[in-house]
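Form P-L/3: holo structure prediction, ligand NBP.
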Amino acid sequence: MTTPTADIGLIGLAVMGENLVLNMESHGSTVAVYNRTTSKVDEFVNGRGKGKKLVGAHTVQDLVASLKRPRKIMIMVKAGSAVDAVIEELLPFLEPGDILIDGGNTHFPDTTRRAKDLKAKGILFVGTGVSGGEEGALKGPSIMPGGDPEAWPSVKPIFQAIAAKVDDGTPCCDWVGPEGAGHFVKMVHNGIEYGDMQLICEAYDLMKTLLGLKPAEMHDVFARWNKGVLDSYLVEITRDILAYNDPDSGTPMVDLILDAAGQKGTGKWTVVSALDTGTPLTLIGEAVFARCLSSQKDERVEAAKVLSGPKTKYEGDPKTLIDDIEMALYASKVISYAQGYALMNAMGKEAGWEINNGGVALMWRGGCIIRSAFLGKIKEAFDKNPKLTNLVLDPYFTGELLRAQEGWRRVCAAAVTNGVPIPAMSSALAYFDGYRSDRLPANLLQAQRDFFGAHTYERTDKPRGQYFHTNWTGRGGTTSSTSYNV
Ligand code: NBP
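OUTPUT (holo model):
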């Protein structure tokens, strides 16, 4: 029998798994590795892993036997049934107290299910979001672990060592909460990523369509924005993309790329969660639908031949418009994060998870795709008031929205007048106007519901909680519907 020498095992040597192994090894861990196609184990151990503290295993039994107790095994395989298959294969060789960690992009209800099933077998299960892509996995990802809290003390030193660090050295990794909370927070991260990307695309479209700016000119704008309130990884890569020319033709690469967006589903999951919990997550919803609309390329090409819009004619000062677009992007981004945090609060309440809002901002501050200076301000807001109902009510963000509002409105007006689609920016403004309204037209809506379905309503001149029904036509009865849900 092999003497256990490895601190942690990892299954799944594709791009993420390999890089995480090298990251863990460079931070002092001896790592045992296994992959279903075992030739990849040898290729890795004798290739990128040569001379490093690695133990190559050709069976899961050998992998388990090489691990020190409590055994910790990280699974980095394709999300879905592959994770269940790996767990089934491992179970006969595990003992109570062993720790299994799923680091893939798993849908959080699967993690909750696995955590419960494995707990019954004495196995501690952790589901963790890992963000930052290939480079992050190697040099420092953002890590969002949740699951069985008993596992955390054993996993914490390894994860916090390999995670990205913010300026003061704090790791972008902390315990998120029980069951699927870690994967849930990673899912919301991905949803926010969809929103940020869509907003940047709308800013690009506005400058291109209203001002006729070329990619090289927009490169300069994004370079400037990246030094201000929009300082972020996604603005930084957009700056670089806009300066990149196709090596063969010299044409800006961005002009050669087909306008049909792909997606893998995490944005959709986020929006489905929002619908399930009744949370207005409008901006991310629009971002997902904008990808869907873009992918209907052939239909759009046909529609463009018959559906004419206004002739684009922007006559204002270009510099003012660029500054306004910066404000529109910024204010919309504040709304998107406010909506994302509201979703986390709603799910936290529903699932009974205590999600640490400031901790989440810190985990997203570095290493991940949505990293930005702005997240430092969100962390400060939740540090000041951990029970903040909505980010827009934090005095700093309230001030920022009020400061940005004029330019934001001018941009939305110019876009509507000139027929430029900005679903994310305009839905963010509609949310802002709705949220700041103490009276919305839902009084009429309640009247309609009561008219056709006797759904009842509350009255402004009576205490909340009393429900009334009107016989609107004189033909209905006085019997009201028994189900009333706000
Ligand atoms: P992939 O998602 O491409 O998965 C490939 C790995 O899964 C290979 O090791 C493959 O083994 C293994 N695998 C599959 Br497929 N089915 C299996 C099964 N039934 N049993 C055992 N192993 C199986 O790898 P990745 O891109 O490195 O991503 C890993 C996870 O991390 C995914 O959940 C992904 O969504 C997530 N993630 C990826 C990124 C990224 O930027 N790529 C970022 C963040 C998170 P084989 O070699 O034998 O086929």
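COMMENT: The chain has a mean pLDDT of 96.
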